[in-house]
Amino acid sequence: MKIRITSNVRCIGFAAALVWAASVPAAPEGTPQYQIYDIGVVEVGDTASQGFGVSRAGIAVGRSIRTGGSQAFTWTLKGGIVGLPNLPSRSYAVSNSANDKGIVVGTAATTFFGSSRLPVVWQNGVVSQLPLPAGETLGDANSVNASTVAVGSVDAGSSQRGVIYSGGSATIITQTTTNGSYFLTVSASTIRDGSWARASIRIMLRATSGSSMTSAKAWPLR
Predict the structure, then answer these.
(1) Domain segments of the chain as ranges
(2) Cα(197)–Cα(171) distance, integer angstroms
């Protein structure tokens, strides 16, 4: 099923069944046109699906929800929806980001709400856990670039911190603002392929006073 709409931004629509927007030639008056594709679910009997991102090459990611679990997926216009394997002992998985090479990152957990969550990566359809910093047992991965550098967070609650996954290791972002605010989680809309990454306004900073704020920040990725 596809539906034509008009919009002034490129978008992905999310509902009980995920839909994906692809640009089509502009209307005569110059308003961008889009086609919405109902992606559906991974398995017959799944109750819903959600989409969480799409790469520049058109690889969409998200999760297909069923009783007792959820399965991460990728979707492309030519290939359709493809389910990704879950980690053993983690019945709930979600893919949050894909790069144009098809490498996908996300989170695997024991409940729909993210209990005992672990950061994961799918390469060539094979799932593996991303490394956690020493002493950490919880984490997630939210975005990945062409160099397979991923970002996300570790721990939870007041101890949650932004993290960079790169080269087989994970590094907590310890840099703070001038007033002592620190990275609570990193969810970059774009991680540039060069030496710098710019996180979107979805980066959350928490001040030492306990207040929270939303901000954009850039830092070097080596």
Answers:
(1) 45-220
(2) 15
CB count in 10 Å sphere of residue 106 = 31
What's the CA gap between 184 and 163, in Å, rounded? 9
pLDDT tens per residue, range 14-65? 333 344 444 445 456 778 888 888 899 999 999 999 999 899 899 999 999 9
> Does the CA dihedral 36-42-43-45 come out positive or negative?
negative
DSSP code per residue over 136-189: ---EEEEEE-TT--EEEEES-GGG-EEEEEETTEEEE---B-TT--EEEE---S
Question: Which residue in the block uniquely carries the two structure tokens 């090459």?
Answer: 57
162 contacts 216 by C-beta, under 8 angstroms: no
